[in-house]
Amino acid sequence: MQRYRHYGASYSPPPRAPAPPVEEVQAKEEEVEVVEEEEEVVEEEEEVVEEEELVYSEEEEPLIEEVQEEESGGIAKQEVGQTVVTETEGKTTQSDSKNGRRSEGGGAGGDAAAGGGEGGAKYSIFTWVVVLALLGVWSSVAVVYFDVVDYDSVLARAKEFRMNFSEVLQGKLMAYDADGDGDFDVEDAKVLLGLKAAQTADLGAPAQKRPGEEPGQEPEPSESERTRPEPAESPTIESTQTLEALTEDPKPVSGSQDVDSEIQAAVPLPPFVEDDFVPDDPGDSNYPHEEASSSIDTTGVLVEEPSSGETGVASDEVLTSSKLTQEAAAEKQAEEKQTEEKQTEEKQAKEKQTEEKQAEEKQTEEKQAEEKQTEEKQAEEKQTEEKQAKEKQTEEKQAKEKQAKEKQTEEKQAKEKQAKEKQTEKAKKKKPKLLNKLDKTIKAEIDAAEKLRKKGKVEDGLQAFETLVQQHPLSPRARYGKAQCEDDLAERLRSNDLLQKAINSYREAAELPEATPDLLRGALKRRAERQQFLGRIRGSLVTLEKLVQIFPEDIGLKNDLGVAHLLLGDNKGAKKVYKEILEVAPGNGFAKVHYGFILKSDNQIAESIPYLKEGLESGEPGTDDGRFYFHLGDALQRVGDNSAYYWYELGHKRGHFASVWQRSLYNVEGLKAEPWWMPKETGYNDLVKMLERNWKTIRDEALAVMDQKTGLFVPEEENLREKGEWGQYTLWQQGRKVGNSCQGAPKTCSLLDRFPEATGCKRGQIKFSVMQPGTHVWPHTGPTNCRLRMHLGLVIPKQGCRIRCTNQTRTWEDGKVLIFDDSFEHEVWQDADSYRLIFIVDVWHPELTQYQRQTLSPI
Prior knowledge:
Elements: E1 4-6, E2 9-11, H1 22-46, E3 84-88, E4 91-95, H2 125-145, H3 151-161, H4 165-173, H5 186-193, H6 223-227, H7 235-248, H8 259-266, E5 295-296, E6 302-303, H9 321-429, H10 437-441, H11 443-454, H12 458-471, H13 476-493, H14 496-511, H15 517-533, H16 537-550, H17 555-567, H18 571-584, H19 589-601, H20 605-618, H21 626-638, H22 644-653, E7 676-677, H23 679-682, H24 685-693, H25 695-705, E8 714-715, E9 721-723, E10 726-733, E11 736-737, H26 746-752, H27 756-759, E12 765-771, E13 775-780, E14 787-795, E15 801-805, E16 808-810, E17 817-820, E18 826-830, E19 836-844, H28 850-855
Antiparallel strand pairs: 1-2, 3-4, 5-6, 7-17, 8-10, 9-13, 10-11, 10-12, 12-19, 13-18, 14-17, 14-19, 15-16, 15-18
Helix pairs in contact: 1-2, 11-12, 11-13, 12-13, 13-14, 14-15, 15-16, 16-17, 17-18, 18-19, 19-20, 19-21, 20-21, 21-22
């Protein structure tokens, strides 16, 4: 059994009673019209404000029930139902379609247009209409009487929506107006069902005559026709054409056929399709899966799309509802497209406005940022200008002060020089009294011997003074002359034995009775100097102490005594001597520079600076020494005073330093001077390669020596550390092995024995150096330019260890050699988390000759 399809849902239809005869149906339809008029009166009383009723824009599609053939081969009954739903003022009235009649063909005859049949229905359509009408009337009365509906709220809702559903629905049903009266009513339904001929004729047929009109007179259009809009193609024409097609060729039908079957025969149903129908607004349809292929033409007849093989109906004769649906869909799509375009335009405009706003804001921010930067730049420039102006003023002030100070110093030095020259002239005028009474008796012989010495005939002069000493053994002047000749001859012959003889002769002359004070002072002072020359520092100190006891008021002798203490390494004794001198003579420049030097050596950095500076500024003899420039600059560096380089520059101008950076004091002139060296430049490639190849062996021995139980690493004692721990284990020093140190590193010493440029360097060292984290070594320079220093990395932390030489900073690497000239200023930082271990190897400067390497004194 085949099924009916309703909005995509199928169900089995109940059995139907036979349809009543046509005459009975027409009589009952008249009664239906009466009932409908009564119902309309009741509905008019129920409506309060008809103009403000709520209208929904949704279009209710007519319900289509497909007509299918029964198994017996007869034509099934056709039922065309249409449900109209109208909501007004908060209430919903549902009425069955006026043409919802069921009928079966029972007779043999019948008009094709009007249709007819025999038999009757058990329950007629009239009964259902009456029941539904009574239910609607009583329901309306109950709603009004019991005040079920809140009309105020309904009116408010109606005002909000501003649409009239009935008008919209009526406008939609205008397509099915067959009699031209401007609305869809029972007469239109009859035409659609084929029970009544359409009043509007075919396009080719003459128009029907109205009562009261003459045959040739043009009928006046009714008011509804005047107000009704004319469609592009009248749907009544299609329905008329369809009915005419039925009346042109009438054929007898069987008793089982009725009017509906004739309509079915004239207008074939569409085939069963699976495509779903998409309503205009999916949100308003209760059946979203209604088939899209089912459509109704303007007469309400279900129309099937002709197949490719069907050519009986021309496309320009019948306008199907599918076309209207497509046009409506196209219109809706156009509207939606316009809406989307409008929304897109609005969105684009909004985005454009946003972008423009953002661009403006960005421009404003950039402008503000630029203004801020400009202001900051101007402020910085202003500050810079002010700072530069202040600095310029400060520099000018300092320059003026410096110039004034230098002028004062020059004037002071000039005055002191003049005073010294006067003293010298006076001394020259006043010759020292060297002759006592005995010496005056042999004055002629003494003068002859002295004349030979001064002419350079030292041997002859020595023989003459020896003869006088033999003849006059108690003559101080004769012994003093002999000592002078021995001294001159020792210097000429570079003989330490002769020099020692001269030292003894000076002592003998000073010990003779009745020696004059001038001869005593001269003999002992010269003896002390020659003792210092031979390295007899302690003997020199004894001689000077005797002199100071004999001449306690002589400041010069006390200064010499202080130097003797310094040479002996007795800083405490020297400090005591110079302190006594400054108490007596606070302006003595020689005492000041030496006292400042002692304070600096005792790590009293800040206290040493004024003594060193004032002593150098005094310009007194003995103050213009490179050591004092060196230590003054070093002290200023340690307190963070950049004026250190002024004194370094001044020391360089005075000839004490090779350059501001290279400040070693024991130098050989003419040697190549650069802070960093490459192995090829040194000529010691073999030594470098050996160190780098065997670095692990050297490292292992160093780690073994570092064992705390051995205690072989000695702390650095040169006062070069600002903070931290720095230990050294020395293998060679001044060209010689240090004790049994090589027993702790035998393999390392064995490797180095083949390189005399390192082991024979008398002005260098070979040692392990370990530096703990947190150590900082002050900027300093080595003592000589005669050596280069190699650093072999053994245990190097990844970060935190670095060395600066002049203005270039480098780092160590495990197994790699760095070479630099330590006579240039260098500085070391150890900021790592673990110790740094390196191997230091000093080598001769490659430009030193073999003779120089052999004759240079050790350092």
